[in-house]
Amino acid sequence: MGVVARTQGLIDAVTKQIETLHHVSNLYYIPNQGDLAAWLVQNSPADRAFFCNSGAEANEAAIKLARKHAKVKLGLEEPVIITALDSFHGRTMATITATGQPKYQKDFGPLLPCFEYVPYNDPEALKVGQDRKPQRRL
Ligand SMILES: Cc1ncc(COP(=O)(O)O)c(C=O)c1O
Predict the structure, then answer these.
(1) Does 54 contact ligand 1 (Cβ within 6 A)?
(2) Cα 78 from Cα 86, distance rounded (Å)
(3) Is 89 a pocket residue for ligand 1 (Cβ < 6 Å)?
(4) Ligand 1 pocket, 87 CB below 6 A?
(5) Closest Cα to atom 3, ligand 1: which residue?
(6) Is the separation of the CB atoms in 56 and 89 below 8 Å?
(7) Atom number of ligand 1 nearest to Cα 90
(8) How does pLDDT run across 23-82, given as a tens digit for each residue?
(9) What is the pTM for the complete model shown?
(10) Cα dihedral across residues 104, 110, 112, 114: positive or negative
(11) CB within 8 Å of 57: residues ≥ 6 apart
């Protein structure tokens, strides 16, 4: 979750940008985004940057990357993602599935398969889950 203070610098930057270009599909190259991606790659261990607009999209991408890695690199057909009970990961279908709170999932089923939940701060529960189907855990 991000909270940004409303400073004059932010207002000036947003005003300048909206006078130039408001929104562009990610089908097109965006010079400012390219510059930021280059900066991120130069100043972090990452070799690529991924941009999105919400926490849910970031988690959705993480879920997709984990599943793709499990299938393509590890050869697993049904990899399981374990998340924490009482966690919150967003409001898309994949992220409400990952969210370990039934109140966010109610009335939206069927949810995605291959998610399991363990309590926070309970390494034994995580270990039991891992031991049950060791070849499928992410
Ligand atoms: C841990 C966590 N993941 C994901 C989200 C979802 O973020 P967004 O509302 O930007 O989709 C939140 C939002 O509070 C969050 O706290």
Answers:
(1) yes
(2) 24
(3) yes
(4) no
(5) 89
(6) yes
(7) 6
(8) 888 899 989 899 999 999 999 999 999 999 999 999 999 999 999 999 999 999 999 999
(9) 0.83
(10) positive
(11) 90, 92
Mutate to test the pocket of ligand 1, among 4, 52, 53, 59 (most ligand atoms within 8 A of CB): 59
CB 69 within 8 A of CB 61: no
List, for residues 12-26, the tens digit of each pLDDT value: 999 999 999 888 888
CB 82 within 8 A of CB 50: no
Place of tokens 């997709």: 64
pLDDT score recorded for residue 134: 46
User: How many CA atoms within 13 Å lie on the side-chain side of 1?
Assistant: 4
107 phi-psi bin (left φ>0, alpha ψ -120 to 50, beta other): left
Residue from 84, 97, 80 nearest 133 by CA: 80
